[in-house]
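Memo to structure team: turn this sequence into structure tokens by end of day. - J.P.
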Amino acid sequence: MNHEIIRGADEIANLTDEWNRLWTASRVPVADARLEIVQLHRDSFAADQELALVIVRDEEGRLVAGLPVVENREHGLFRVERGLANEWHQCGQLLIDPDADSLDVCNELVDGMSRLRANHWWLDWIPLERPEWETLTEVATERAWGVQHKSRFEVGITVLPETWETFEASLSRNSRQKGRGELKKIRQVGTVELEVFAGASESDLRRGLNEAFDIEMQSWKGSAGSAIRCHPRVEQFFFEWAEKINRAGLFRLFILRVDGKAIAFDFGCACAGWYRAHKVSFLADWSAHSPGNVLNQLVLQHLIADHEILVADSVGPMNEANRRWSNDVYRLGRIVLAPGTWLRNVPGRALVSLLNARSSLKRSVKT
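Reply from structure team:
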């Protein structure tokens, strides 16, 4: 095996088809890991930083691993490699071909990472329990790198059965009655419809997204300034993101309507047997009719009937709303890696030690 560092817009673009084949093979259920989305994220949120791909090829030259990062310097001194992730969008996934030996691949990947001579690697918003991340940190630890893990929160997921009746039977009696009651109540107001956008035309996609962004602006997020439409650059990103994901056949948008009026939405990606919700919101003045829970119920019914989706991922932190529909969880968090020994990398090792000490202190205070 051998590693390479790929930089430059043309060189990265030339790798797109090969990278996306690796993404498909990896079964990582995050469509944002596709290379055109990685490039869009960098151009939208980190345009002043250089995108680099650390890749591994096997003996036959086949691409078997890839990790995208952006390179920058903090305070003009420390060199940092960061995963492509922020609170709006996360796409810095580690891809490994399942047919390759993951331990050998990660050893070669760490060799490539070492070549970049970063003081530390800041890899955030990642699923900590995915095997590829666990293997990477195992190899880094064996190399005597500094390693710090931090769990952000648990994410609720719904493992979907064959039928809605089976899923409903798995809920508590109170949850079943509550769900049926919410659906009955909102149907007394008018005709309830779930509009589904999958493989939509460009004009329909724009229309649906505009409705979704308008709904979010009229929710508490609009008042708080955290709605997508409050930030023109972010809004433009999501239009471009949706168009690219839609062209790949992976975009989904669900709009809940009552007598034709759009009152709630959920949009995200469907791939590798997962549906991952990126944004969900509803009109504040419909709160008494539980539009969020009605929307969740109808989306789950649709996904179960579709038979292509095995898991629905709420993406956000576990809360009262998604706990009701979830039957499993995973942890989303951060890994910080400091290559080399203390002698060779004092700033990076000091940072990791400080972060670990702070985490230990917080745990001791809680207990």
